[in-house]
Design brief:
The complex is a heterodimer of chains A (about 375) and B (about 300). Chain A has about 375 residues and is of the alpha/beta class. Chain A is about 35% helix and about 20% strand. The chains are: A alpha/beta (about 375), B mainly alpha (about 300). The complex binds adenosine-5'-diphosphate (ADP), iron/sulfur cluster and magnesium ion.
Chain lengths: ~375, ~300
């Protein structure tokens, strides 16, 4: 594998709400290789955006990053001062968002806004920055960029604005682009164009991308590696072929079941039955247990370990690597002791003191 | 000729923009009601500024033998009980109403913006305390608050300015705080933060221009009500307190008992109050439409 650009470990981001603590990101590990695209999938509310915002250190009250590390080229971003972090944002790591209609400031022209993004990180004059803004607009495929640079966001279509956002994000030559559902708000043909553009620019720049989406079609199109999230936790990781060919986690299998096949009409997807657990009242065992077609007695008692089911593929599930029911799972429903013993065995096998997070740190590389 | 042909060729289909304020101005110019409002305001401003030149008589000196004459060529709006020329008094009244109204609104705007920016910018406990305080002020009707202040500070133009200004400050504070809070949650502010902009830069460069436009609109509309408030204070006997000074509200009070036989003494100052207020209202509504670039065309 290539070297790692971004390494996230044990990331925990909680929100203190009036009703209690929401563990929006609860011990997330992930790695993004240099020049690679990591797809992050999961249903809405599973913590994808909060993970991205935590990496950028843009979490605000009532949220707080409580634990973890985010290493970019061996620098832990979580240890930087706020002004050092500002140098990272929009420079080493850029971000684009879901809503192109509202992500640009309505009172400034697009050229102005791109020029500002450039000048935040480069010591150049306004004129030069504006010229570079026009060049960036040309690069992202906007026709007549000189004129477009003098227009306001509301004078452009959604697809055009998303191109402007991409131009702005890439104007500083970032090492990593975080794209949070960049095409969700766009219609299908525009969506394809934007993905095509991102691919081209990725090849040209050899830049890494963290692509957040709930659309596995987009993942299949774009990603090298995949992280599947559920309820603030990573439930499965692997390269894109493995995840699509032999998904291990029942949740991943469920998501793939809801992927529209070629020829099938988009829109009405088969979705996994049930809803995500209430973040304020999480079940004590596997978080997916209430919706899982393979649920076993042990699942409701003890959180499953994070086990390497194949080289490079890690899954947080009690099923055996082959996907069958483990022997311990068949014992009496409340036989927690034995379940715990099984967990310890797995832990001991991999030579680690604590299962889950630390283990993932090793195998998720 | 050659240059004209060239201009025709390069003319872009949608108009390219030349800046927020210039665009707003060009939109304002095409807004009919706003222009009417502007003309009405201009008439009063010119009348007020050039009152000494335009006014045919001294507004404070009356000829008792001319008392209570109806409108005529010599006295366009008639004369009052003391034989003073009503037209001259209405003109001079515009001076008081406009200056007191404008200065009061500017004071209210200044105080309100500081409070609103601190509350909306700081948030938390500071915000809570400041906003509870403005809530209390807003719970008291503005004119009542103004009456209390004049009653406390005594008669005089400065006192009226303070009174009216204080009653407007909480409105501006609440408005600015509200838009700052909404802007803080907005996608483009998050995008600016993700681009590496600092907090002061986001506040001044990204949030303020967006928060300012509703303030400008509100301030213009407030001028309309401020003029009515000033006249209201005068009507209630809390005006400048100098009988020689012509003030629209006091003129109404003085003439109220002659409603039957000299209605013109009520009609003209009343019309002055109403028309100037309508002027500011029309302009305020026009500004609301022109300052939003999304409402183009
Ligand atoms: N400001 C907030 N206050 C409380 N909870 C929040 C806040 N922002 C996000 N959350 C919670 O964090 C969880 C993850 O949200 P998010 O990362 O936006 O999900 P998604 O995967 O759809 O991007 C959600 O359950 C949401 O309730
Ligand atoms: S641990 Fe059990 S409930 Fe959870 S996903 Fe695996 S089989 Fe399903
Ligand atoms: Mg999201």
């Amino acid at each position: 594998m290539t070297d790692t650009l971004l390494r996230v470990r044990h990331l925990r981001t909680y929100f203190w709400t009036l009703d209690g603590i929401v563990k929006a990101v609860d011990g997330v590990n992930m790695d993004i290789g240099t020049g690679r695209t990591l797809g992050v999938v999961g249903e809405s509310g599973c913590g994808k955006s909060i993970t991205a915002l935590s990496i950028m250190r843009l979490i605000e009250r009532p949220g707080k990053i409580v634990e973890g590390s985010v290493d970019l080229d061996r620098t832990d971003l979580l240890k930087l001062s706020e002004s050092e972090m500002r140098e990272i944002r929009g420079n080493a790591i850029s971000m684009i968002f879901q809503e192109p209609m509202t992500s640009l400031n309505p009172v400034f022209t697009t050229g102005n806004q791109i020029a500002e993004a450039i000048r935040l990180h480069a010591d150049i004059g306004a004129r030069e920055a504006e010229d570079r803004a026009v060049e960036m607009l040309r690069k992202v495929g906007i026709p007549d960029p000189e004129r477009r640079a003098r227009q306001y966001p509301h004078e452009m279509s959604g697809g055009m604005r998303q191109r402007v956002m991409i131009a702005m994000a890439l104007s500083t030559y970032p090492q990593l682009l975080i794209a949070d559902e960049p095409t969700t708000a766009l219609d299908v043909t525009i969506q394809a164009q934007i993905l095509e553009l991102m691919k081209e620019l990725r090849e040209e720049r050899r830049m890494s991308i963290m692509l957040i989406t709930h659309d596995l079609g987009v993942i299949a199109e774009m990603a090298d590696d995949v992280v599947v999230m559920y309820s603030g936790k990573v439930v499965e990781t692997g390269d894109v072929f493995t995840i699509f060919e032999r998904p291990h986690h029942p949740y991943t299998q469920g998501l793939l079941g809801s992927l529209p096949r070629i020829g099938q009409r988009r829109g009405r997807l088969r979705v996994i039955e049930g809803v995500v657990p209430n973040p304020l009242n999480l079940p004590k065992g596997c978080l997916f247990a209430r919706r899982c077609p393979c649920v076993m007695p042990i699942c409701e008692q003890t959180p499953p370990p994070f086990q390497e089911v194949h080289p490079g593929q890690v899954s947080r599930c009690w099923l055996t690597p082959a996907g069958t029911t483990p022997a311990v799972g068949m014992t009496a429903p409340a036989d927690v002791a034995e379940a715990e013993a099984a967990r310890m065995t797995i832990t001991a096998d991999s030579g680690r003191q604590s299962a889950t997070a630390a283990q993932m740190g090793e195998v998720g590389r | 000729m050659a240059s004209r042909a060239a201009t025709l060729v390069v003319r872009p289909a949608p108009r390219a923009s030349r800046g927020l304020w210039r665009d707003a101005l060009s939109r304002l110019r095409r807004n009919g009601p706003a222009i009417v409002g502007l003309v009405l305001i201009a008439i009063f401003v010119i009348g007020a500024v050039f009152a000494p030149v335009i006014a045919p008589y001294d507004p404070s000196v009356g000829v008792l033998t001319n008392s209570m004459q109806g409108p005529s060529l010599a006295h366009l709006m008639g004369t009052d009980l003391l034989g003073r020329d009503e037209f001259s008094r209405v003109l001079y009244g515009a001076r008081i109403s406009l200056t007191v109204g404008v200065v009061a609104v500017i004071c209210g705007l200044a105080v309100g913006m500081v409070v609103g920016a601190v509350a909306g910018g700081a948030g938390g406990i500071v915000d809570t305390i400041l906003m509870r305080f403005t809530d209390v002020m807003l719970a008291v009707p503005g004119i009542l608050l103004a009456i209390a202040i004049v009653a406390w500070l005594g008669h005089g133009e400065v006192q009226i300015i303070v009174a009216v200004g204080v009653s407007y400050a909480p409105i501006f504070a609440r408005l600015l705080r509200g838009s700052l809070l909404a802007l803080r949650e907005s996608d483009f502010v998050l995008a600016a933060r993700s681009a590496g902009a600092s907090t002061p830069r986001i506040l001044l460069h990204h949030m303020m221009p967006n928060a300012l436009t509703p303030m400008i609109v509100q301030a213009t509309l407030a001028l309309a009500t401020a003029i009515i408030d000033v006249a209201g204070l005068g009507f209630l006997g809390l005006g400048p307190g100098d009988p020689r000074v012509a003030e629209w509200g006091e003129m109404l009070t003085d003439s109220a008992r002659f409603l039957q036989n000299a209605p013109y003494l009520i009609i003209f100052p009343g019309a002055a109050i109403t028309i100037s207020a309508i002027g500011f209202n029309l302009l305020g509504d026009g500004l609301r439409e022109s300052l939003d670039p999304r409402l183009k065309r």
